[in-house]
Amino acid sequence: MVETQGNALRLVGCDANAARLGLTRGLTLADARARIPDLVAVEADSHADERLIDRLAAFCDRFTPLVTLDPPHGLLLDITGCAHLFGGEAALLALIAGYLHRGGLAHRAAIMGTPEAAHALSRFGAGGIVPVGDDESAIAPLPVAALEIGAEAVLALSRAGLKTVGDLADRPSSALSARFGEGLAVRLRRTLGREDARITPLRPPPACMVERHFAEPLLDMAGLEEVVVRLITDAGRVLEQRGEGGRAFEISFFRSDGAVRRLLIETGRPSRDVKAILRLYRERIEALADPLDPGFGFDAVRLAVPVCEPLNVHQPSLDGRAVEDEAVADLVDRLVTRFGRDRVLRFVAQDSHDPRREAKAVPAVAPIAARVAWPAPEPNGPPSRPIQLFEPPQPIETLAQVPDGPPLRFRWRRVLHEIARAEGPERIAPEWWRDGPSEPTRDYYRVEDAQGRRFWLFRAGLYEREEGPPRWFLHGLFA
């Protein structure tokens, strides 16, 4: 495999035959062909490699939720507390090897105490399972290149006679840090297992997770729903013990061919009601444009609850019916599940006096970190704001009795409206920290025409402040 690096084509991958002939990564294609004239060279596709690694990472998610990439072509899995679910470390390693072999992928794997140690033994050693406490003895014979510290540092250490990791392990860390920086000392400690560091998984670990693995691939869709019901019930018990409910439920289906299908269900408030969540699951299945296909069967199903919140038990009303808010919330959840979170919105108040910014539409199921109270309406008075505003405000032609007074009539969309009543002005200054100093002041009026239609108008600009010639706009319609 060749790739353009700098101004030359260089080898970036060699199969076993090419390696036996002495070809290595980094060699130019011209030099390689000078040695082997009939060399078959294929252009590398790094994007395809990345897609394959991403698919493998999703596949390995069935073994542990803590999976991350180990560039350029590796994966790191934190199997702490997971190996016993598959019969132990040896059985887990054999299971993964079997899957990769059936997929036509050669690999080398190592199970060790730290990510850096497993990386070094799998790339520069024979791999395998190292018992607890033997990390240092297994890593010591490896070359210093196993520390991944750069070619210049490896060359300098080799010239000093330090060719293996064990040679460095016998040296004081202060001397190594003074010559090569603290990074080398940290990498050495972690590779030898003297210092541990957690990996950063591709997917954050969920707050609650339950799963089922099957001895034989599951093909029956009715049986699959029964498994989902059991998972929801199990998750509900865990959440009940914590006094919490889930705001998001992710169901992952792991197929035997390595494909992973994930369905996300979101709710507008915390829930652990099995019937309600199952109803949303069925809605989600029915709304899929690409139906859930078992293929050769599912090996495992996982239910993760990535978002949990405290759940207070609601008191039903005295007539035995649920409160109306619960019914509305259930309807919103079903609409979101069927049409998508970005198509079902709600308004939330914003901390702004500008009518263009005092409300914002957000997904109905999106959690709100800090709520801002809506302005209190005038007692027994008409609404001070229209429900919906024009964006942008629509320009109108007006005639006013005095320059700073309300209009007597205005023309909008070629229709002339005679003003019967007007109330105002409500002066709103611009938010200069957002709009800049050139934004004009606005005077708003609530007006009603002779036919009883009510409008919300404003004049942009004041005569006495020399903010330019004032202009009139229609910003909204009252119901």
Structural overview:
The chain is built from 14 helices and 19 strands. The protein folds into 4 domains: 2-44, MutS, DNA mismatch repair protein, domain I, CATH 3.40.1170; 73-191, no CATH class; 208-337, DNA polymerase, Y-family, little finger domain (Dna Ligase, domain 1, 2-Layer Sandwich), CATH 3.30.1490.100; 389-477, no CATH class. With 479 residues, the protein is α+β, with helices and mostly antiparallel strands. A 7-stranded antiparallel β-sheet has the order 13-19-18-17-16-15-14, with no helix packed on it. The longest helix has 22 residues, at 221-242. The relative contact order is 0.06.
Largest sheet at a glance? 7 strands, antiparallel
What is the CATH first-level class name of the largest domain?
Answer: Alpha Beta
- Overall form: elongated
The CATH homology group name of the largest domain = DNA polymerase, Y-family, little finger domain
Task: Identify the CATH architecture of the largest domain.
Answer: 2-Layer Sandwich
What is the total tally of β strands? 19
Total domain count:
4
Q: Strand portion, in percent?
A: 25-35%
Q: Which stretches are low in confidence, meaning pLDDT under 50 for 5 or more residues running? A: none
Distance between the termini: 69 Å
User: What is the CA-based Rg, rounded?
Assistant: 33 Å
List the helices and strands and how they pair.
Blueprint: E1 2-5, E2 8-11, H1 16-20, H2 29-35, H3 46-60, E3 67-70, E4 74-77, H4 89-102, E5 110-111, H5 115-124, E6 128-129, H6 135-139, H7 151-159, H8 165-169, H9 173-180, H10 182-191, E7 208-218, H11 221-242, E8 244-255, E9 260-271, H12 274-286, E10 298-310, H13 324-339, E11 345-349, E12 359-363, E13 389-395, E14 397-400, E15 407-412, E16 415-428, H14 432-435, E17 442-449, E18 454-460, E19 471-477
Parallel strand pairs: 5-6
Antiparallel strand pairs: 1-2, 3-4, 7-10, 8-9, 8-10, 11-12, 13-19, 14-15, 15-16, 16-17, 17-18, 18-19
Helix pairs in contact: 9-10, 12-13
